[in-house]
Amino acid sequence: MPRNTATCSLVPFYQIHDARYMVYWPVTTPAGLLARKEELRRKDEEKRALEARTVDQVNPGEQQPESDHGFQGEQTETGIHRDRHWRHAKGWFSYTLRNPQRNARTLRVTYAGGDKNRQFSILVNGRPLAKVQLEGNQSGDFYDVEYALPEALRQPNSPTTLTVKFQAAAESTAGGVYDVRILK
């Protein structure tokens, strides 16, 4: 079977001056390629399904998304871990998320598995939603936790914005938080 071929000149690293470049060539077997394609397809499908459920979201630690969502806080810090932005606080931090159709049913928060011994409360519009104790996980991977929102937030006279506040317990830290979403 004919193959598309293209010429490619490989140049030794020491001969490249004043140029920025990055090349990654994944190497695999034919079976590995099929498995990789299936994994990418599955992840893409999961991402599209999550986006379809998302009413609003904020990426903690990123300037524009936080500004767009009315970030406020005290004794709070941001950083990057494994190419993802985060925010935590010895005090508190909050965001205002839009819920124009009042159809949000769940608050979804992403944490990192390496965060342990952290205790905090999540409040929505000033009312307690959950007490959280982060204990991490063996692999240190990111994980999501979904918290059911009160039925009262779905009533016709309820507000069309939700202020989500992360309040540290005494002598503890709220977060790190990597993603905050309200879902249908």
Task: Please outline what is shown here.
This protein is α+β, with helices and mostly antiparallel strands.
Describe the 3D structure.
InterPro entries: DUF4986 (IPR032275), GH146_SB_dom (IPR046544). This is DUF6805 domain-containing protein. The strands form 2 sheets. Strands 2, 3, 5, 6, 8 and 9 form a 6-stranded antiparallel sheet that branches. A 4-stranded antiparallel sheet has the order 1-10-4-7. The chain starts with 29 loop residues before the first helix and ends with a strand. It is α+β, with helices and mostly antiparallel strands. The protein is 16% helix and 43% strand. The chain has one domain: Sandwich (Jelly Rolls), CATH 2.60.120.260. The protein is built from 2 helices and 10 strands, in the order αβαβββββββββ.
Question: Mind sketching the topology for me?
Answer:
Blueprint: H1 30-53, E1 54-58, H2 63-68, E2 72-81, E3 84-98, E4 106-112, E5 116-124, E6 127-135, E7 142-148, E8 161-168, E9 174-177, E10 179-183
Antiparallel strand pairs: 1-10, 2-3, 3-8, 3-9, 4-7, 4-10, 5-6, 5-8
Task: Give structural attributes.
single chain, 184 residues, alpha+beta, Jelly Rolls, six-stranded antiparallel sheet, four-stranded antiparallel sheet, 2 helices, 10 strands, 16% helix, elongated, DUF4986, GH146_SB_dom, DUF6805 domain-containing protein
The number of distinct β-strands equals 10
Domain tally: 1
Radius of gyration: 22 Å
- What structural class do the secondary elements suggest? alpha+beta
**CATH architectural label:** Sandwich
Low-confidence stretches: none
User: How large a portion of the residues is in β-strands, by DSSP E?
Assistant: 35-45%
Q: Which term fits the overall shape?
A: elongated
Distance between the termini: 49 Å
